[in-house]
Each structure stands twice: as structure tokens, then as C-alpha cells.
């Protein structure tokens, strides 16, 4: 039984780049919502006040699926993002809202840690358009010690999403001293190239001291830059840095000719040379949902 | 605001910067109010500077 159906604790209209989703309707807004709860317990959680609380302890809005879709349309949002905490926790709410959104021509975006069984995942994929899958580290030990979860189901989730036709982007939050080993990052990138495809956008996100890891410093920008270089060397076409505005590593470039397709500074987005889902300079098809 | 978050990051450094700027502005204003001037701010040969030398000159 769910206690959170139609009762989100956070509702915002965000740039879709904030999810982060860089290859779905760039420059558009996503109607973003979340309820209380998460099935992981990450020590670094930046939304722990939402994810690590009980529904009865959170101020919530009464927002049934029909109202979510109506509001998204009213505010001109081209997508609804099930985000901030964990859509798997509010599975029924996500599924019912997604079905209605589909009928209204609104895209559905999951921002998830992907710790879910295969059967319900496939059902959810049938109404989802895009997903940002959080791969928090690339060892079972890291998942067990820091997130109270397991890695393998998350990797399976990524593969199933791809099989089911959901556009997957991956985020990896790099936490200093815990998962910043470049060899581990290299193995993760190799797995992404092999199992999800080199066209899968990969975001390296900067950690800020939060929740139970306040004693650690923010991730040095050099570590993130190095991770991105590893990803590109491993064959990932699109790798970005998150929470480092103005780094220059937020732009989308053509993997074939290097032309600047989409320029981003923070959440400011400008489409430069992307034409009908392809590079305007060399015609290379660019992976994404562009219309 | 960080990615995938409904809340802003704690901006400790930014806040400290604002606090320092306000404190400096207050100190500057207060000193001016009290009739003092920083040497680097005072125009050369200003009346105030001349007055200063006047006072410093031996009375004899």
C-alpha cells in the first residue's frame, strides 16, 4: 500500500537541464515532483530532508495525476520529471501520472537510482520517455557501505531501460576519497560503452558536503575534469560536468566533427547547430529526443 | 541550485563574502563619519590635508 499517491512534498518547474537531461528537449521546462521516501540511504544525499523522511512528517500538496498533467500543460512544461527523491518509491503515482501525460503529449522523465525489480521496471518503461540513471559508484562495496544498496540491479536497470526504448542518461556523483578512483571510473565508462552504447550521455556531478558526509570537501574540479577525459578516451560521445557552471564541459558537441551543437552555462541553454536532431555542419545524427 | 535538487546549496563562501563586504563598507562609512580619512583615499593637497599640516606645525 502506498501512502504517497497524489501527495508530493516538492513541486517545481525546473529547466530540464537540472535533472540533468541534456539530450531531451533542451531549453524546455520540466514539471518536477517528488514524494517522501527512497529505497536507498546514501550518506551524501543532497535531498535527504525529502528522501529520508516519512510521508506523515512532510508537508504535502494534494495533487492527483490529473491535476499534475493539467498544471504541466498550464505552465507550458513539455515534460514531467519524477525526481528529487525516488520515483520507484512513488511508483503507482508515477505510473498513473505518466499514462495521462502520454495522452496529453507530455514526455515523462524518471530521475532514479534504478534499484528496482525487472518486471515493474518494464511496466514503468512502457510509459517513460527518458531517464537519468544514477550510477553512484562501480563496486558492490561502495553501494553496500555508502548507499545501503547493491550495484547489479542498477546495472540491470540501465540495460532494461535501453531495451525498452527509454532514452538513458547516466549521472555519477564523484565523492572525494570514496569513489574518485579513476580506474573505477574507467571500468564504469567501459561498461556504459559496451552495454548502454557510446551515445549514452554521461554526467559527472560535483559533490558538496551534505547530510552524513559533511566532513568531506567538495569534489575538486580537476578530479571531475580528469574523469571526463577518461570517459571520452573510453569512447563515450557525450560527457558533461554537473554542478560546475561555466566549466565549458556542459556544451554538446558533435562526436564526428566537433561542432558546437548546444551551448550551456548553468541552466542557460542555447541551441547553436543542432538541426532536426542532427549536426548542422556534418549531418551526423545526435542521440536524443529533440521534438 | 545543484542538479536534481529542490533546495539551494549552502553558500557559505558567498555568504561570508557578503558579510565581509558589508563589514568593510560599514567601517569605511564609520571612519568617514568620524572625520577620518584613509591616506590612500585623501586627495593630495586637499584642504583637510593642509589643515593637518597646519596643526602639526610648531606654534612658535
Task: Count all strands of chain B and give the number.
Answer: 0
Proportion in helices of chain B: 40-55%
User: What is the count of DSSP helices of chain B, taking H or I runs of 4+ residues?
Assistant: 2
Q: What percent strand of chain B?
A: under 5%
Backbone shape of chain A = globular
Instruction: Estimate what percentage of residues of chain A fall within beta strands.
Output: 15-25%
> Oligomeric state of the chains?
heterodimer
Rg of chain B, please? 22 Å
Note poorly predicted spans of chain B.
Answer: 36-50
Radius of gyration of chain A: 18 Å
**Total strand count of chain A, please?**
13
Describe this structure in words.
The complex is a heterodimer of chains A (291) and B (60). Chain A is built from 8 helices and 13 strands. Chain A is of the alpha/beta class and 291 residues long. Chain A is globular and about 50 Å long. The model of chain A has no long low-confidence stretch (mean pLDDT 96). Helices cover 53% and strands 0% of the residues of chain B. Chain B contains 2 helices and no strands. The radius of gyration of chain B is 22 Å and the shape is rod-shaped. Chains A and B meet through loops of A and loops of B.
Write the layout of secondary structure elements.
The complex is a heterodimer of chains A (291) and B (60).
Chain A: E1 10-15, E2 29-34, H1 48-51, H2 65-74, E3 79-82, H3 91-103, E4 107-112, H4 118-125, E5 130-134, H5 140-147, H6 152-163, E6 167-174, H7 182-196, E7 202-206, H8 221-234, E8 239-242, E9 252-253, E10 260-265, E11 268-271, E12 274-275, E13 278-279
Parallel strand pairs in A: 2-3, 3-4, 4-5, 5-6, 6-7, 7-8
Antiparallel strand pairs in A: 1-2, 9-10, 10-11, 12-13
Chain B: H1 12-33, H2 47-56
